[in-house]
Amino acid sequence: MYAAIVVNWNGCAYLPRCLDNLLAQVPAPAEVVVVDNHSTDGSRELVQSRYPQVRVVDTGENRGPCHARNVGAAAVTHERLLFVDNDVVLHPGAVAALLARMDQDPHAAMVQARSLCGDDENVVHYDGGDLHFLGTLVLRNWYRPRQEADDPKGPIGAAIALCFLTKRSVYHDVGGFDENLFILYEDNEFSYKLRMRGHTVWLCPEALCTHLAGTAGLSVRGEGRYPGRRTFLHSRNRWYVLITCMRWRTFWLTVPAQLLYGIVYAAFGVRRGHLGDWLRGKWELLCLLPKAVRARKAAQRGRTVPDRDLLIAAPVTLNPGLAEKGFAAALRRSLDRFFCGYWRVVRRLCG
After folding, report:
1. What is the structure's pLDDT at 218?
2. Mind listing the pLDDT tens digit for each residue in 214-245?
3. Tens digit of pLDDT for each residue in 331-346?
4. Phi-psi domain of 189 (left: phi exceeds 0; alpha: psi -120 through 50; beta: other)
5. Residues near 153 by beta carbon (within 8 Å), at least 6 away in sequence
6. Measuring CA to CA, which of 16, 64, 154, 219 is 20 to 30 A from 284?
């Protein structure tokens, strides 16, 4: 038995495929809730007219997917929760595979489905990843042909929140998703909180879903344009996650590397005309600091695993087409080597 929570904002064009495939799963969800971030495209009316068995919860305003997931988790009663974004189409057998994978490990708190690209289902989009000490995610099988994708032999470092199974008790124990993030980096923060308490995160390659379009004005597909809003959120949210989730000793030991990465990312933003977005992200981060300190206390409560056992250093994941040739590629390789060497030096000292 499980409850399914579909997060929606102006996804009227995607909801029929999403809900049809969700309701066709075996086993079917015991309850389905569409949490709608006050859409203006007729999403709520569509669900109410075509899917009378589905409950609609209107949040009253668009406060992002973090808030919507928390509202959904509070609105259902079953222990196992399946979260699905509105532009995700589950393949037959996906939920059964997710449930089976969770049953294999009593410490499993989050199991992610393998996400395929909506424009080419032979290509992996999201396969989870690992927590880089810089606060980013090192993505697994990123834009790799599906037949070449390697399957993990055990738990992974972090999951992507577009389609995953979790336990309601654990979800509430870690405080759910941090709503101050709104969107972007919320996967890092949630996975970090789970793993610092000794829970495990899994990828289930047998559970397939197709990720159709992503979030308008934010998602980057293939070699498409990098949106300014993504620069803003990256500028704000990366440091927010570092402040809330890292032990202070780890934070201060890694500050030189964090600053270098931030400078490089700022230059990346300036090159694309996003200086204003980057600066706005930093200003909002300053405004969020009191909330980050309060969120930190809750995040660190119940922690049992040190950062040195959670974080890694590996080549940073970049979108296809970025820093692959010439000076940019050489700089990228040099920075990756520096960050990996830096982490080897400070890792044992981290809390």
Report:
1. 59
2. 666 556 655 456 789 999 999 999 999 999 99
3. 899 999 999 999 999 9
4. alpha
5. none
6. 219
Locate 99 and state its tokens: 């449930």
**What pTM does this model have?**
0.95
